[in-house]
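Lab meeting, item 3. Inverse folding demo.
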């Protein structure tokens, strides 16, 4: 499986090369009020979600990009799916959904069907904490929202009061503080469930799939942490179990605190903006994805192949 790694240090001028006319777009950065990019949200017949536009003609060749908040491109005028479309000269549909997890991806038949229609699907690697499993369940659409606890989890943590816990991150922080050994049981369950769900998703998507890792660390490090800046609890060994179902893996490692230059947000959301990818990050990701697709034969008139592991 192709593995293309890109870190922040390798991308000094990528934004200028990729963003073009977007670089001079007005940002209203730091202004109070409803200052947001024009996301061009569109309703697509058959889906319960609204996606970032423009939409594509699903009867014509296109690339599908599935992912979370980073894929959607909150606070940026040109998210990486849009830039990738310009690089490939191919329509790219941005299926980014905030706080998406494997519960939504596994259960949304419409979304899986659209991905199967695509010539190629880019799938941002999701977190292991935001999905229903044998110990707790999450909201069907907002997968970061904790709903119910199983009798098994109550038995492991008899002293924990779950009544005021509403998000998976908070849940796991409480469990980690309550019992180290109990928390290890939870983490092992999340890892097992993640592998099974990812294998199921990849089996259901009938198009070729390129995986995308976006975090402030590589999959080799800090996998067992409650993390808002990457796929929590996912490590290299888990990704390796998917290598026969994907044509490759692109790794993008960003700085933990991002520059807000070029981002569009109200001043009272500055802290949130600093935790998300900026224009340079999106440009670098689009460039890395385009390079990976060239490496596996995209656009050369030959079938896309599986490649040997390569690291930059």
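The presenter then showed the designed sequence:
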């Amino acid at each position: 499986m192709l593995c293309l790694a890109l870190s922040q240090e390798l991308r000094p001028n990528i934004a200028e090369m990729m963003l073009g006319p977007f670089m001079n777009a007005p940002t209203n950065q730091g202004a109070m009020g409803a200052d947001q990019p024009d996301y061009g949200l569109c309703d697509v017949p058959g889906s319960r979600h609204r996606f970032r536009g423009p939409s594509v003609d699903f009867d014509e060749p296109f690339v599908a990009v599935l992912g979370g908040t980073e894929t959607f491109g909150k606070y940026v005028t040109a998210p990486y799916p849009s830039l990738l479309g310009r690089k490939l000269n191919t329509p790219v549909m941005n299926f980014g959904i905030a706080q998406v997890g494997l519960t939504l991806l596994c259960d949304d038949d419409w979304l899986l069907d659209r991905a199967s229609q695509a010539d190629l699907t880019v799938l941002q690697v999701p977190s292991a904490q935001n999905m229903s499993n044998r110990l707790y369940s999450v909201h069907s659409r907002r997968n970061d929202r904790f709903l119910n606890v199983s009798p098994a989890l109550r038995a492991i943590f008899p002293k924990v009061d779950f009544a005021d816990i509403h998000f998976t991150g908070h849940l796991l922080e409480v469990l980690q503080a309550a019992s180290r050994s109990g928390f290890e049981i939870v983490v092992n369950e999340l890892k097992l469930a993640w592998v099974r769900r990812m294998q199921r998703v990849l089996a259901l998507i009938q198009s070729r799939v390129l995986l995308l890792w976006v975090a402030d660390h590589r999959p080799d490090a800090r996998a067992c942490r409650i993390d808002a800046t990457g796929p929590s609890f996912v490590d290299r060994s888990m990704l390796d179990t998917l290598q026969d179902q994907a044509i490759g893996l692109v790794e993008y490692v960003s700085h933990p605190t991002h520059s807000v230059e070029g981002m569009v947000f109200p001043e009272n959301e500055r802290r949130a903006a600093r935790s998300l990818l900026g224009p340079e990050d999106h440009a670098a990701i689009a460039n890395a994805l385009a390079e990976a697709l060239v490496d596996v034969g995209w656009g050369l008139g030959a079938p896309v192949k599986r490649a040997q592991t390569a690291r930059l």
